[in-house]
Every structure is written in structure tokens, then in C-alpha cells.
Amino acid sequence: MKNLIRLSVVVALLSSSMAAFAGEAEDMALAEKVKTAIDASSSLKPFNLKVSSKNNDVTIEGSVNEGLQMAEAGMIAEKVEGVKYVFNNIVPKQ
Q: For residue range 12-60, what is the model confidence (pLDDT) as tens digits?
């Protein structure tokens, strides 16, 4: 009986770890999709903006020359399939 309980605990821990890993992989994939979409803009690619994701919420960080570029990055990110919310932490220099 003790072995069955131990096995159940191990299975539960492994399942939890696998789910967390799957969530992290999905977050990384979404961040990469958003980064690719932003870098497709010739006006944004030179700034090498940082993109991260957690639970389908995307955060964009870095600096750009002007506010219009900041807005453009946010609008591009919002259009990527799977993005729930965008935290636009870009700082315009002007």
C-alpha cells in the first residue's frame, strides 16, 4: 500500500512538472512569434526589442526613437494569434 501511495505521489509530481514545462514552452513559442512579427517591421527591427510571454500575456521591452514606433510594436503584438494582453514597456527617446 505504501508503494502505491509513493507511486501516486511521484506520478502527480511528474504530471505537474510536465504541465509546467508545456506552459513554459508555449510561452516561449508565443514570445518568438511576436518577436518575429515585430522584427518584420523595418522601422522596429533595428531596436532589437525584447519580448516575453506568460499565460498568453506578452511583454515588450526596450527603447525606440519615437512614440509612434512604440505604438506600432504594441499593435503588431496584439494581432499575433494567441496573444491575450500586451504589456508595452517600450520607452520612446523623444
A: 544 555 455 556 889 999 999 999 999 999 999 999 999 999 999 999 9
pTM for this model (two decimals): 0.77
> How many other C-beta atoms lie within 10 A of the C-beta of residue 30?
24
Quote the cell numbers at residue 89: 514597456
Helix 2-39 to helix 67-78 angle, to the nearest 10 degrees? Answer: 130
Contacts of 12 (CB under 8 A, 6+ apart): none
Domains and CATH numbers, the chain: 26-92 (3.30.1340)
Nearest CA-CA partner of 90 in 38, 40, 42:
38
